[in-house]
Design a protein that fits this description.
Beta Polymerase, domain 2, Poly(A) polymerase nucleotidyltransferase domain-containing protein
């Protein structure tokens, strides 16, 4: 008598091939050709800024960073912390949004994240730094909106609209090379993540054709 019985192997039934509706996806060459056509349309709408205007935008960002760092040094001296060297406190401005992605339309505003050390209070930014901004002749129409979900300072700097948000890191200084994608740097994660969340958006890393993404993104500002 055979003690082992031969087991019949079960073969899974083949699944019917799923139908794909619509036209086939475009090739990379076709995408680039369509993107170039859209660029010509955008040029006809006057969406692109000249090189002079782009350099002016970079100058404005650099000027704001200088003012922010000057203010941090002033705050260090005012608070008189013995273990903090004012000249080494640092400070960092991080543009984000359409300006950072390189898809800002002509005349669009610039969104900027101001990163300061942990010994500061948020109220310092919205009182003392805003006061410093108002004393600059290049700055007009400064408004501090502290009650917003993401508190923001709105202003016009040499004719360019600026939105400033503020976040602190859990350090007494902000080095230039600090990696803001590390959330353990944040001083108060609940509050600071509201301001830093736009910076963490990694759309560019998920797109296989960045130039096409940028071209289509211009249309978001046409209205």
């Amino acid at each position: 008598m055979c003690l082992f019985r031969h087991r019949r192997s079960k073969i899974a039934p083949s699944r019917p091939q799923q139908k794909v509706y619509g036209p086939p996806p475009p090739t990379r060459e076709e995408e680039c050709a369509k993107a170039n056509d859209l660029i010509e349309i955008l040029k006809s709408f006057g969406c692109f800024e000249s090189n002079v205007e782009l350099r002016h935008r970079e100058h404005v960002v650099q000027r704001l960073q200088s003012l922010f760092r000057e203010w941090l040094v002033e705050m260090c001296r005012e608070k008189n912390f013995p273990d903090i060297i004012p000249e080494r406190v640092g400070g960092k401005l991080v543009p984000f949004g359409s300006h950072h992605l390189g898809v800002a339309s002509k005349g669009a505003d610039i969104d900027i994240l101001c990163v300061g050390p942990g010994f500061l209070q948020r109220k310092d930014f919205f009182s003392s730094f805003v006061g410093k901004l108002k004393r600059q002749r290049e700055v007009k129409d400064t408004r501090a909106i502290e009650e917003a979900f993401v508190p923001v300072v709105k202003l016009s700097f040499e004719g360019i609209e600026i939105d400033l948000v503020f976040a602190r890191v859990a350090r007494n200084r902000v080095p230039e090379g600090m990696d803001l994608l590390r959330e353990d740097w944040l001083h108060n994660k609940t509050e600071e993540q509201k301001s830093t969340k736009p910076y963490f958006v990694k759309i560019l890393f998920c797109c296989h054709n960045i130039n096409v993404l940028k071209t289509f993104s211009y249309f978001a500002d046409l209205d």
